[in-house]
Amino acid sequence: MAQIGISPRPTKLGNAPDGFVMKTVDFSDSEDSDALPKQRSSVAYEEILRQRRRLPMYKGRKAVTEAVLASQVTVIIGETGSGKSTQLPQLLLDVDPKQRIAVTQPRRVAAMSLATRVAAEMQTGLGERVGYQVRFQAKLGLQTVLRYVTDGMLLREIMIDPNLRRYTTIIIDEAHERTVTTDLLLGLLKQILANRPQLRVVVMSATLDAETFSEFFGGARILYVEGKTYPVERFYLKAEESNLVEATVKAVEQVNSTQPTGDVLVFLSGQDEIEATAEQLHSRAPNRPNNVPKIWAVPLYAALPERAQQKAFAETPARTRKVVLATNIAETSLTIPGIRYVIDGGRRKVRVYRSKLGLDSLLPVSISQASAAQRMGRAGREAPGKCFRLYLESDYMKMAPHTEPEIALCPVSGPVLTLKNAGVDNVYEFPWIQTPNQRSVANALLQLYALGALDSAGKITKFGSKMSVLPVDPALAAVLVHAVDQEVHVRDAVIDIAACLNVPDLLLTPPVAKQGEVAEARAELFPAAAQYGDLILVKQIYDAYESLVASGAGRRDVRDWCARIAVSPRAMQSVNQIRAQLRRYLRLTRERDQADEDTIDYELIIKSFLRGYPTNTAVGLADRRYQSTVNNQPINIHPSSSLFGRRSAAIMYLEYVFTTKAYARVVSPVELDWLREVAPNLLGSK
């Protein structure tokens, strides 16, 4: 029996959905079969229909569609396995085929995979009636009535069409993740609804936090759709493990040697941990007993090219166990076939803004209990499963109940620029679902003014409007917009570097035992980096990689070359796609030629980046440390930098990391005169 609970007003939900179930509807399987859409018959499609019949959202289609169509805003709690992401848009189209629907996803992988699945269910080609649009990639057509888009792409559409008149229904999926972009969208949609009373908005969440969304939209109706999952056994570590990668490898090997058939989904915090785990699993293959399955380690993270991401969904070969090594992009929306076991590292990476320092850094943090539950649920989508948590039960009890909204942690200069471009003059009075830290907003306004995005009255400038179009953070956007007016060789080099910087973990952190070897290889192959720093290192690596591929080198040769200098070959494959997209955004047509390459000026490239990062600078001290120009805080060059151990009058850095002390990463040397030219107020009497 499928349960659809409906609440006309926000209600205290408590821990169990029974607290607000107002109506229960029973849908029999015989009713489902009569209502199936009339489509061409095939064995594959019949199997798809059988799968749809079993989904609670499909079984409860009449109650769901009636409730959604009766309200301007509806909040849906859809448990894992309810089918909310794939079924609701189709059910609404069944009622009214003339609708135009956008379904947002926090992650591009989910948007693409959901569009692919729904296109198959609707028996239409991907890019025809069903399509997707994500950063740097789209598959759409004139007939597209259902779009799966990332939050950021819908935000960009609002910049072009402030009332989103293309759509009749907007579905905000995975709202419980509370990304900055999701929160921005909710606030803007609240304003749009006042101008478009016929527009419908559905906010979907996988956790019991619907009351927040309901209250935000003035008491929106809440629906609860039960999930379809199997029981999952849960296991904790008996003692803490100091090395997460080693603990993960040990757990995978143990599952492989002791558990019945079934694939494994491993949650790690980032690409560096994923690559290290995959490497260790690969190196252990020769010593694995013949009576256990082979291990097929498959990475899954946002920066992977689409073809590489699809390997996670491929059928597992015989006598093999697929081990998907994923970040939290596999936590919700995605269903990877065959998963019976989950290994949860209990960590995720989040960009944390330190408003007192005016700096942000990417840090690994503990997940919430809600995220832990989502991860565990991945093991029970198709059959009973097991979840192995690589932390103590006492650590689980210390986790926050829900994931903290990004707006409380992240820098808000990007969101503020977006709001300014959308015509929001007073960002303090914008209807935030959760108001960001006031100091963070003030710092964002000051940064945007310093970059030239805002004028002295706080209005967006023409330069700021150009910045807001680019799908990168404001500092890098300022660099790119400035670079358009530079000489061709400088402009194109800046775009190359910017594309590389937009691929997470392009430069990997080698194991301690190999760090010296990698440093020597980089110094030998890219000598200019020792003088000009990490931005030029990135540029030289990109050029060398392109030359290697153009020469016809085989995949193994390319992989070995990347391993020698600790570069991710998978990440390198994504750079050109991003580079081409940035050029389109900047409306550039002419490509550089060899003459341009021969006249490259590294100092001009660094000065171009200084235009976007004047506050990320520090002046050299006598003891080889540096002092930040903004807050006079001490900072050190990170050991991974090509400038480590070398003194400069001043440095510019793109990343700030705090471990045992403050470190600057992605470092370039700058002249004090350059800094005085770009930001004369920063140096004072220095």
UniProtKB/TrEMBL annotation:
Provide one Gene Ontology biological process annotation: positive regulation of transcription by RNA polymerase I
UniProt catalytic activity: ATP + H2O = ADP + phosphate + H(+)
Q: Specify the enzyme's EC class, one word.
A: hydrolase
Domain Helicase ATP-binding intervals: 65-226
Tell me which SMART domains the record gives: DEXDc, HA2, HELICc
PANTHER family to which the protein is assigned, alphabetical? ATP-DEPENDENT RNA HELICASE, ATP-DEPENDENT RNA HELICASE DHX33
Know the name of this protein? RNA helicase
Organism taxonomic ancestry: Eukaryota, Fungi, Dikarya, Ascomycota, Saccharomycotina
